[in-house]
Amino acid sequence: MHAQRQRTDRGEQMWQWFNGGVIALICVVMLYPFWQTVVASFMTEAEYLSSPLKLIVLEPTLAAYKQVFADGTIFVHLRVTFLIAVVGTAVALFVTAYSAYGLSKPFVGSSLVMFLIVMTMFVHAGLIPDYMNYKSLGLINQFAVYILPYMINTFYLIIMRSTFLEFPRELEEAARIDGCNDFRIFFTIVLPLSKPILAAIGLFYAVAFWNTYMQSVFFITDSELKTVQEYLQKLVSDSSDLEGVMATESGEEGFSSETVRLANIVLVLLPIAAVYPFLQRFFVSGIMMGSVKG
Amino acid sequence: MQHIAQRAKLLLTKHQIYFFIVPAIAFYAIFKYKPLYFIQIAFKDFRVTRPLEASPWVGFEHFATLFQSPDFQQALLNTVIISFYKLLFGFPAPILLALMLNELRHAAFKRISQSILYLPHFLSWAVLGGIVYNLFSVHDGLVNHVLGRLGYEPIYFLGSTEHFRSLLVLSDVWKTMGWGTILYLAALSRIDTTLYEAAYVDGASKLQRLWHITLPGISTTIVVLFIINIGHLLDVGFEQIMVMGNALVRPVSDIIDTYVFRVGLQEGKHSLATAAGLFKTLVAGVMVFAADRIAKMIGHRGII
After folding, report:
1. Which CATH number covers residue A142?
2. Higher pLDDT, B130 or A172
3. Overall number of domains in chain A
4. Residues of A whose CB is below 8 A from B226
5. Residue B47 CB neighbours (<10 A)
6. Shortest CA gap A207–chain B (Å)
């Protein structure tokens, strides 16, 4: 690419502008819905209904958020989800790294074990067998059903294992001669040296746990234990059902919860937006894909 | 004596590694392999009131019921249709986008675009679906607002069987297109730049370079991702349907996953739902195998 740069002719320059322009346009189209959602959540219901197209708020108000706070239901679910994200990430990151380290060492039957592990990426028993399994383990309606089955993501396990495989052996050998056992090597040498990959995978785990939805729908009936994703889904699909009724009953004036729903969406979106700048560092540096071969 | 003690110590340190492996093996045994045992539900007359072991075998009876059920037929058809459109639009989109991003010279602009394009991948369907719902709402949605300004009648997108699938595909492209570029960009960055320089010196046009250098450079990635996509052909996104679907569009939005959930967990027909789930897994297996074979036939490496 560098040689090309020196020889940019007119056609190339035009192409650069065109290509950049199209990408900029795609970005604007993709980003706009988020911007609009955030902005509209600060509007009064009247302002929103008069013109949803606005890019800025004329008279910002916290009315929608006040209503969300007054209702308070979402905070029950935000709390559960926050706990899932914190506990889940800590547990999953540790168990994944711990297992990946073991699997990166030679042992009897290692290729069979790796084969059986990789196979699980393609073979699923299905929803009902999972349900029966959790039931037999006493996990139905338990907080643990959010964490235990997701302690190891096979894809991340494989990534971590290949990172450990590429570790310089000399370091571990030296520690072993100094009398360190595997546990000490793992905790004092391997973990500290793999901070970048741990941070990357930890963030990906955190996002996945924050977005926990299906476990909540399938295996939890206790409404206090439902995740915020399911709460939000119900909120959205209820209003879409409601809209169906309204639409068939002909143009009655809007129900008052438009901006309130938007405020709920913003609250669920916020934590992801908060960790996003940290996530960026990893996918731009390509730390994840570097370790995936093929 | 000292020699033996040393060996014993070595053996102990060697075997320590099993402390690291046992939890992983237990995890996969309990959460990934044990559920396979319950697949027998699909071949038994299982009731919640009696233990699984005491339920009589019924052979393929549930599968027969399943395939005769108009509900399941519709769900299967919907799944295939939605999946086909998602593949048709969703598969090439990241390839094109990656090729375009790869052309960008301005590093900061490239980085910012990537950050924007990747964002929807990290958000749940509850959030994205809520936003889509908002944009396409019939009363005050932005799209209908614009249509209204242009003098059109408002369209009830989310409640119309005609538009619903397009909305599913469109929002899916929104969520997956950007992140989908990541493996292609990695493959593109591995292409030897001297190839481009040589081609440039030889007077190859931009299109020729694209065709003879860039595309062969990412063809393996394309094939591998295509095979993986084919394996997920019947996974069309339970969560997305749950968020965006509603009673009005049920005839076009009911997919195998929502069918399994409704019949199995809500109506308690465990056997029927297990059969449906098993059918899905088998199809995925066959599809991956077939796609892999075809890839190998046309001279690619495949994944198996």
Report:
1. 1.10.3720.10
2. B130
3. 1
4. none
5. 13
6. 7
